[in-house]
User: What shape does this take?
Amino acid sequence: MSAVMMTRKVRKWEKLPGKNTFCCDGRVMMARQKGVFYLTLFLIVGTCSLFFAFECPYLAIHLSPAIPVFAILLFFFVMAMLLRTSFSDPGVLPRALPEEATFIEMEIEATNGNVPAGQRPPPRIRNVQINGQIVKLKYCYTCKIFRPPRASHCSICDNCVDRFDHHCPWVGNCVGKRNYRYFYLFTLSLSLLTIYIFTFNIVHVVMRSVNSGFVKTLQDTPGTYPFMLVCFFTLWSVVGLTGFHTYLISLNQTTNEDIKGSWSGKNRVQNPYSHKNIINNCCEVLCGPAYPSVLDRRGLMRDDLSVPTSALSIVPGLCLQLESSYGAMFPLQKTTAPLIPNEHTPDDAKPSMADSAIAHAEKRSPSPREEKLPTLPKSSPTPTKVPPLASPETDAEASIIAKDKAL
Amino acid sequence: RFHNLQELRHSASLANKVFLQRDYSDGTTCRFQTKFPSELESRIERPLFEDTVKRLNIYYAEAEKMGGQSYLEGCLACATAYLIFLCMETRYEKVLKKIGRYIQEQNEKIYAPRGLLITDPIERGMRVIEISIYEDRGSSGSCSGSSSTSGSSAR
Assistant: This one.
């Protein structure tokens, strides 16, 4: 199915809301601030290069060539895990399309009933029972959804992320359901690499000292000491972090939950996701299925977004019809024709499913951007009988939401 | 009333959408509520609908199953530094394709003839199953106005 439009094909990542940057035509997804990530790369690559350049020749000859070989393998593993963590989708939940948002709003209105004028409506919470415990699902005003359990909204990336752990500036991305295991393996392998390099550094210095005296060794190998210092400090922080995450994994908790103290304390709910067995917890987190991304970054922006793909694929002929009959006559232009015809639309202007396809391509691109504005529009996106979409200021939970966003 | 999907496209207009929510009673695994929405009462028989949703739940459970195969896949992938994912399709992706085909088949056989259309949940972030309800163009102009009356009951 080729594009109708005169302009180039647009991929979905170009129109995604949120503050991510994309590279390689949507294959790579990162946060906006990447400075610290470049520092991480520099430290790892720099330290390992110095190790390979200065220490390895001596060690290979005097001890064993296996030492640099293993170091290289470990280095590649560390880099692979780092790049996987940084470049993959952490488990971003796409924002609700207008119809879904409206549907949820109406459900909320129905639950709340009539709020007397002047009074704030109750906070938007949905209670669900998970494994016998009551868990509260919060409503996300930015994404217009009730967040699934364990999901949280990252204010840096401006996305809701499933099984949100934390936003890591060192890898330049959020850590969530899809990339948590890569993050853990990155910290684990980096710990091993740092310990390995540090150990063989010491071995190297000792061996040289035995041969030629300590002072002469210091003079011969000046390059050793800067990066030994880096290794030493890195060691403590990375090993500490690995230990912390090992603890979290064994309890099947996220950093976010740990910080908020969601499952700690006697009068609080116990963790409903834990299998109460360390091995099961570890297996679930590290060896569970590889979840696919639901963002579809590289899909082409379809003209008619009201028609599900499952239906479109059945009627390829329709799209060819579109091309031949409309492509030449109606060049792509901004229209304000609503997708769903309603009583305000005069009968002769009611768009057919095919006609609305062309209009909708333009309509969709401005709408996700609207969500970025700090004040949500008070008027409803779909006309008539729809309650105005609430904003955080009108809700009793405003302060809690603000705290959430700051996290 | 509608014989096939082509007729649906040309002669029907979108009247309403129903969203089936996730069922979290079992944890964060993907499951959808099988509660029958009232808007569909006049359009489709309950057993057919429940059958579809239950089957989808079975497929998702199969995709997310923690068992020998998923552990093996995980360990093998880890040993290759996950480079194997660049060329191999994961089990989850295979099941998702199966789900896509199943939904297409259900749409063709059962839902389109009744003026309904199911959207694959993956297109909605696996949050909801969206069911679009179409009205015959020729019928009395029932349009999006109908959505307000039925919003309260679909929980």
Residues 180-212 of chain A form the longest helix (33 residues). The first strand of chain A starts at residue 20 and ends at 23.
